[in-house]
Amino acid sequence: MSVNGKAMLSLKEFFLRKKVLKLYKDILLCIREVPSQEDQKELREWVRRDFKANKYHKDQYAIKSLLKYGERSLKELRQNLEFTR
Questions:
Q1: H or E segment at 51?
Q2: pLDDT tens digits, one per residue of 12-21
Q3: How far is CA 38 from the centre of its chain?
Q4: Which end of the chain is more exposed for a tag (fewer CB within 10 A), N or C?
Q5: How confident is the model at residue 85 (pLDDT cuts 50, 70, 90)?
Q6: Which residues pair with 2 in a beta bridge?
Q7: Where are the beta strands (DSSP E) in the chain?
């Protein structure tokens, strides 16, 4: 089934997409806490590049693997910010 020429997502795909968008938002919010404006800009560009480069993946296992990588990266960023405080 399609709506406006776009295929509808299955329930699993919908929830996976929701997780990806939440991760993206959480990373961008965390980047705001980085003290240096230059570092913030660089990190935002890096995140956008990574998400754009991987947005065409259809394999759920690949997406889940990338999500785990993103979650680990976010955790690492948060830990590094805690150390700098």
A1: helix 37-53
A2: 999 999 999 9
A3: 20
A4: N
A5: confident
A6: 7
A7: 2-3, 6-7
Question: With the C-alpha atoms ordered 75, 81, 83, 85, is the resulting torsion angle positive or negative?
Answer: negative
Distance between alpha carbon 47 and the CA centroid of its chain, in Å? 7
Cβ–Cβ < 8 Å for 64, 19: no
Burial of 47 (0-12, 13-18, 19+ CB in 10 A): buried
Phi, psi for residue 30 in degrees, rounded to 5: -65, -40
Judge whether 20 and 63 are in contact, CB under 8 Å.
yes
Rounded Cα–Cα distance for residues 71 and 27 (Å): 9
Signed CA dihedral, 35, 18, 76, 65: sign only: negative
In angstroms, the first-to-last Cα distance of the chain is: 51
